[in-house]
Amino acid sequence: MLKQNYQTWMDQVEPDKAFRAQLVEAMAAQFDRQPGPRRRTRRVGRTVLAAAVACGVLMVSAFALSPTLRQVLKGALGGYAEYAQPVEGTDVSNGMELRVVSALNGGSMLKVYAELRNLNGEPVRDPLYVDGILIPREEGEEGAGSITAGVEWVGYEAESETALLEFTTWGFPTPIGDRMELMAVVLAPPGELAIEYEWRIDFTVEQLSVRSIPLTGAVSNTPLLQADLSALGVSIRTGGWNTIDAFPLTVFCKDGRRLTLPHGGGGSMGDTRLTCWEYDEPVEPGEVAGLALGQWYIPLKGENAGQGYWLEELP
Amino acid sequence: MDREEAARLVEQYSMAVYRLAYARTGNREDAEDITQETFLQLVRTAPAFRDGEHCKAWLLRVAANCAVDLHRSPWRRRSVPLEEAEQMASPEPTVEDGMLASILALPEEYRVVVHLYYYEDLSTGEIAKVLGKREGTIRTRLSRARAMLREDLQEGETPC
């Protein structure tokens, strides 16, 4: 009965003809802009690594990454190079090796870098659609939560036919601990719903310092519960299903800097929701004096830490 | 890909993609955004498919991921609350059936599983592959969705 009613109702849900016509035009225009099939690429280095970063910083495992990919990774990490930790773990699936080499564990935010190569020396197929899930493995908490990660190509080294991938996850409730499992899959181009490659890699990455502040008050009828700050960004835990990710977050630093972080996102865990904003460059948790969600200001120091109030003007 | 090929793909698969997106968001505009991004990804990545079913599975998977990404965008339009889904402007279908209203009131990730199971007739294993989750996770979500529906409908038996 439920199935029949649902199908009958859903049969009425359809995009209108105008939208479909626009979609066809958009696809044709997209194709015209492309010179040909291309690899899924992304920025290769959002920030040029400062020369001051010491060459001896062990951001990657000593057993992984060619010098070229190491430089690519440094560029992608930018100011986070000195925060990244070497991690080790590998798995092979159908002759394809995935090896984790570096990670940033900001508590509610996690980034993992891994190299991908064919053991037979052939190029990594282009295009390759990789999906990943990062699963905290805190002892005694099997299945503490798994969240699909965004996966991007950081770079590709033709000489070794090796790709460097970045897995990013937001929205873990803190603390998540140090033990992680990365599960990554590739859907086969030929094959019905088949998974061509599947890797499962356990690794350990120490969590960076996280500063947690209980919050009071509500924004858009959404109760604010807790703020978690790490060098990677800010996470705010809220009650209920509503989101606050439409709000830009302004971070007020003790040295007078104001950082506006437009990217809010995250996920739900039970009856609470975590919304995260990511820094472009590291900000130590102790450097932050206050936060503003739109015009809702939250002081983070003094007796009134965590007790928000409305500002008269936009920060 | 020429315009004719694009039109064929849209004709063949846009309904399924749009309905999955709508099941997840309960919002026409968001469903259109997700559908458009899904098909543009198809153009950008140009994957090779063995047959139509594989193409459809790929599109559903991308659409599901796009729906997740939509929540990460700070500039996305605010979704219409699920409870107000029945008040969507024409030509949105109205929800007069109590069971359907209950489905639309489920958490988003549960609605996607319910949709793929009851509408697309996928098995839990196939849904797990589409969503990139473990099959056990899918079974758990399906069970919890059924339990929530049961509770909502105040019935003591499985609603399927």
Highlighted features:
heterodimer; A: 315 residues; mainly beta; Immunoglobulin-like; 2 domains; 8-stranded antiparallel β-sheet; 6-stranded antiparallel β-sheet; 3 helices; 12% helix; 42% strand; globular; B: 160 residues; mainly alpha; Rna Polymerase Sigma Factor, Chain: A; Arc Repressor Mutant, subunit A; 66% helix; disordered C terminus
Structure commentary:
Chain A has three helices and 19 strands. Chain A has 315 residues and is mainly β. Chain A has two domains: 67-204, Immunoglobulin-like (Sandwich), CATH 2.60.40.1630; 211-310, Sandwich (Immunoglobulin-like), CATH 2.60.40. In chain A, strands 1-2-3-6-5-4-7-8 form an eight-stranded antiparallel β-sheet, with helices on one face. In chain A, β10 and β11 form a beta hairpin. The N and C termini of chain A lie far apart (54 Å). By secondary structure, chain B is mainly α. Chain B has two domains: 1-73, Rna Polymerase Sigma Factor, Chain: A (Orthogonal Bundle); 95-160, Winged helix-like DNA-binding domain superfamily/Winged helix DNA-binding domain (Arc Repressor Mutant, subunit A), CATH 1.10.10. Chain B has seven helices and no strands. In chain B, α5 packs across α7 (135-153). The longest helix of chain B is centred in the first third of the chain and has 23 residues, at 3-25. The termini of chain B are far apart. In chain B, 43% of the residues are buried. The model of chain B is unreliable at 72-91 and 156-160 (pLDDT under 50). Classes of the chains: A mainly beta (315), B mainly alpha (160).
Question: What's the arrangement of secondary structure elements?
Answer:
The complex is a heterodimer of chains A (315) and B (160).
Chain A: H1 2-11, H2 17-33, H3 67-77, E1 85-93, E2 96-105, E3 109-118, E4 130-136, E5 147-157, E6 162-170, E7 179-187, E8 195-204, E9 211-214, E10 218-219, E11 222-230, E12 233-239, E13 249-253, E14 258-261, E15 264-269, E16 272-278, E17 288-293, E18 296-299, E19 309-310
Antiparallel strand pairs in A: 1-2, 2-3, 3-6, 4-5, 4-7, 5-6, 7-8, 9-11, 10-11, 11-12, 12-16, 13-14, 13-17, 15-16, 17-18, 18-19
Chain B: H1 3-25, H2 28-45, H3 52-70, H4 98-104, H5 108-118, H6 124-131, H7 135-153
